[in-house]
Automatic annotation (TrEMBL):
Protein name as it appears in the record: Anhydro-N-acetylmuramic acid kinase
Binding site residues for ATP: G7, T8, S9, L10, D11, G12, V13, D14
Record gene name: anmK
Enzyme's top EC category: transferase
EC number: 2.7.1.170
Task of the protein: Catalyzes the specific phosphorylation of 1,6-anhydro-N-acetylmuramic acid (anhMurNAc) with the simultaneous cleavage of the 1,6-anhydro ring, generating MurNAc-6-P. Is required for the utilization of anhMurNAc either imported from the medium or derived from its own cell wall murein, and thus plays a role in cell wall recycling.
Length: 360
């Protein structure tokens, strides 16, 4: 199974070729990262609720081409024959996630029909929509595959830090007890870095380390009602953007101080959520692009101490590939028509199969 993940950080596509044993345990057989073509990330970032339908449809088709190129590159890198691949599990690119709307909606683009036609491989997509239809938040879905990848004999939390950060709460024995979005992950730090440095991200949090946390601003940001809302909960990445940040004022005007404060916001909101709803874990595993930020890891580890912080890489799963592997896991479950129980995670009313199947 091939898993394709393009997250809210908009840096490209992570593709994983995944084998499964008889018990459904995944093993990574190969992977690539396919960067978005020049300008595509900016086009996606510019999409908003009032964007013309034509713009969205053109991006939907363009992304399918990018995903097809990614699959071709992965097959070339691994030598995987087309007939040996059971399917392509496609998350798509999230444009809008509004579980509190009436009716609740979520939108991921990257036309699965075009992808199936271009690759000659069936595609499994639209994973979040069925959970919404069943009364769930549509996110996070990660706790189910975090349990498969990282379940162990003790209580554990698994954190994914992409544009948004989320946490999965695992019982001793590996069962997923819950999970939710904790707040901003990389999104604000990346946006602030783009504005002031013209770079895609703050490498290892070095710019943040050159500044000082504005405690007054941090406290004001943490007063946002989302952080106090109990699970189940999920949020759109645009809920924590520079327009949101501009509503607050601190004592410092130095951009580096603001960056330090944004890093502290991600770390503190995440750790506070684990404190309140994480079930007293014996360790915490961090994955996603944020796991590659050494400064952010240090901030989280210091806040969680003495609870140990580990990375997915330490446990044999590359931190940046966990979601791609996870969607391959969800793709396999869809082909088996497994009914997945997300009641304690998203609030879904009943177990339902996730994902629509698009034959080649």
């Amino acid at each position: 199974m091939i898993g394709l993940m393009s997250g809210t950080s908009l840096d490209g596509v992570d593709a994983a070729l995944v084998d499964f044993d008889a018990d459904g345990q995944p093993a990574l057989a190969g992977h690539i990262h396919h960067a978005y073509p020049s300008g595509l990330a900016d086009q996606l970032r510019a999409v908003h609720g009032d964007s013309p339908l034509r713009t969205v449809l053109m991006l939907d088709a363009r992304l399918a081409e990018v995903y097809a190129d990614t699959v071709s590159a992965l097959r070339s890198a691994t030598g995987a024959a087309r007939g040996s691949v059971d399917g392509i599990a496609l998350h798509g690119q999230t444009l809008w996630h509004a579980p509190a709307a009436d009716p609740p909606v979520t939108c991921q683009i990257g036309d699965p029909s075009r992808l199936a036609e271009a690759t000659g491989i069936r595609v499994i997509a639209d994973f979040r929509q069925r959970d919404l239809a069943a009364g769930g938040e549509g996110a996070p879905l990660a706790p189910l595959f975090h349990a498969a990848l990282f379940g162990c004999d003790h209580r554990r939390c698994v954190v994914n830090i992409g544009g948004v950060a989320n946490v999965s709460v695992l019982a001793a024995g590996g069962q997923a007890l819950g999970g939710f979005d904790t707040g901003p992950g990389n999104t604000l730090m990346d946006a602030w870095t783009r504005r002031h440095l013209g770079a895609a991200f703050d490498q290892d949090g070095r710019w943040a380390a050159s500044g000082s946390v504005d405690q007054g601003l941090l406290e004001a940001l943490l007063a946002d009602p989302y952080f106090r809302r109990p699970p189940p909960k999920s949020i759109d990445v645009r809920s924590f953007d520079l327009a949101w940040l501009a509503r607050y004022r601190g004592t410092s005007e130095r951009p580096a101080d603001i960056q330090a404060t944004l890093l502290a916001l991600t770390a503190e909101s995440l750790c506070a959520a684990i404190d309140e709803w994480g079930g007293a874990p014996e360790d915490v595993v961090v994955t996603g692009g944020g796991a590659l930020n050494a400064g952010l890891r240090r901030a989280i580890a210091g806040r969680l101490a003495p609870c140990p912080l580990r990375t997915g890489d330490e446990l044999g799963v590359p931190a940046s590939l966990v979601e791609a592997i996870g969607f391959a896991w969800l793709g396999r479950a869809a082909l088996r028509r497994d009914r997945l129980d997300l009641a304690s995670i998203t609030g879904a009313r009943r177990p339902v199969p996730l994902g629509g199947i698009y034959p080649a």
